[in-house]
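In this supplementary section we document a worked example of the pipeline. Step one takes a protein sequence of length 147 as its only input; no multiple sequence alignment statistics are reported here. Step two produces a three-dimensional model, which step three serialises into structure tokens for compact storage. The input and output of this example are shown verbatim.
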Amino acid sequence: MRYRELGRTGLKVSAVGFGCIKFREVPEEEVIRAVRRAVELGVNYFDTANSYHDSEEKLGKAIEGIRDRVIISSKTYAREAQGAWEHIELSRERMGVDYIDIYMLHSVSDEETYRKVTSPGGALEALEEARAKGVIGHIGASIHREL
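The serialised model returned by step three reads:
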């Protein structure tokens, strides 16, 4: 497997990542088998979100005992700080982890949303605080439109 540095994070992520949105359609045992096999093959980057149904729970079970071998990215649709904090804690609880490597603001796809998440009391405030407390490692955003 080839690995690449992810931006300026210092994280070395596998050239092939594993998206978890479809976990809801797959029985837990199959998810665990697939994730474990992917890790055996060198995949270390797993992307999920608290809005992806039960994907965080299934991913958490799949990485039990191998947390140190994976990089987890999760996301929130929350736009205010309080909601973002709740989602961070919920994600950690669902996955059974103390720390999430990357936590992103999901679908910051227009100027209005950008202003909302970056304003005082916005979701970015919670992510910055979580990073300062060591609960998340890095902050990102996903965008779902043409630029």
